[in-house]
Amino acid sequence: MLVGGMIGFLSYLCVIKISCKFVKKTNMGEVRAKIVVQNLRDIHLYEEGYLKQSDIRFLELDALADTGAVETLLPQDAAEALGLKTTDRIIVTLANDEKIELPLAGPVLITVCGRKWRGDCLIGPLRCEPLFGQLIMESLDLVVNPRAQTITVNPASPFLPSLKMK
Questions:
Q1: Under CATH, which number does the domain 2-11+32-153 receive?
Q2: Is 25's pLDDT higher than 90?
Q3: Domain ranges for the chain
Q4: Residue 78 CB: number of other CB atoms within 10 A?
């Protein structure tokens, strides 16, 4: 996890190259991607002249592209580093059919494959595995290839996401 824009935490700004390729070979069908998560409130404060660009909190994370999940999940320590505020609580059903209540926090700006998504994220336990689900993949028009273990923009819409509104 890479943290930037926090005064005194890093003495320099990190340059981030966003890639849609897998991070490493993993279990068959598992697809991972580098994502950049930014505090959207910080971005708005910067745009209004109340915050320096270097003070916008962000993280670069190795996240699981989970086609079985709807929402995005960030570890609690990531949410704290970003300064996210809890906005709600949601009951989620896990893969083993267990139901648990998780906080929803935000707002965040998430960049995947060079495309940007805005919204809130579920917050999991400390150091849990970050993942992004169907909401981001559909909104950004991303294509997951489990066999090649890659996630890419839809080749039919390489410049902008294309969404169905019917």
A1: 2.40.70.10
A2: no
A3: 2-11+32-153
A4: 23
Rounded Cα distance, 79 and 122, in Å: 9
Dist. CA 122–CA 70, nearest whole Å:
10
Count Cβ neighbours within 10 Å for each residue of 90-114 and write b for 16 or more, e otherwise.
Answer: eeeeeeeeeeeebbbbbbbbbbbbe
Radius of gyration of the chain (CA): 16
The per-residue pLDDT for 164 is: 86
Cα–Cα distance between 116 and 153 in angstroms, integer? 12
Q: Cβ distance 61 to 110 under 8 Å?
A: no
Distance CA 99, CA 72 (A): 17
Q: What is the pLDDT of residues 109-161, one digit of tens each?
A: 999 999 999 999 999 999 999 999 999 999 999 999 988 899 999 999 999 99
- What predicted TM-score, i.e. pTM, was given to this entire model? 0.82
